[in-house]
Amino acid sequence: MLATATATGPICTGVSAREFIRAIGRTWVQIRYTFPTVIFILSLAYLMNYSGIAYSLGLGVASIGMAFPVGSAFLGWMAVFLTGSDTSGNAS
Q: In the predicted model, what is the mean pLDDT of residues 7-36?
């Protein structure tokens, strides 16, 4: 989105180039920690999916019998926590 805003901003917004560049700088300062965080979360999600960790956790929880409702809720919480996304947690 930042790249698109950079390409179309001066044309579409009507602000001066100096003000627009300042806005881009402030935006970058706000999101500079986002990139490593997203990379870490996606790396962990891929590691869990490709190494079989998600499958092993699911198999272990499925074999606990009557405690399955509690175990499955815990497994779902852990998948969401580790992958950083409910969608990724449900997909793994």
A: 84
Give me the DSSP letters along the chain. -HHHHHHHHHHHH---HHHHHHHHHHHHHHHTTHHHHHHHHHHHHHHHHHHTHHHHHHHHHHTSGGGHHHHHHHHHHHHHHHHS-HHHHHH-
pTM: 0.49
Pick the more confident residue, 16 or 84: 16
Mean pLDDT, residues 23-35 taken together: 88
Distance CA 50, CA 25 (A): 38
Residue 7 structure tokens? 């390409």
Sequence-distant (≥ 6) Cβ neighbours of residue 64 within 8 angstroms: 71
Task: Please answer whether residues 92 and 83 qualify as being in contact, where contact means their C-beta atoms are separated by less than 8 angstroms.
Answer: yes
